[in-house]
User: What shape does this take?
Amino acid sequence: PQLPEGADPALGTKPTVAAGEGELTKLTVTPLIEGTGPAVTAGQSITTNYVGVLFANGEQFDSSWERGEPATFPIGVGQVIEGWDKGLVGVKVGSRVQLDIPAEQAYGNDAAGGRPAGPLRFVVDILAAQ
Assistant: This one.
């Protein structure tokens, strides 16, 4: 993928994402790589690479890496799950963060329409924000 200027080269490689431990009760944002770009603000469109797994067992359910291109969407305006809207605003471009998202800030506890149920873990690379 096209990396931000000065970004850690690790952002060019798909991360390995493991299962979480214990009960997930609140949104947790863990910086894995600290970016040097501007902080993401609500209302911007962000370009990301990400891997999503079930928090309980680490089973992957979604990944932009498999599609071969980053995903771009508006952040902080209700277009994505609440855990992304709340967890990614303020993160700097060029960062890789782990989002541990409780079910009520993801898709809930009922798997419908092919969406994963329960708490989720995402590792998200912020490649651009505009």
About this structure: The chain has two helices and six strands.
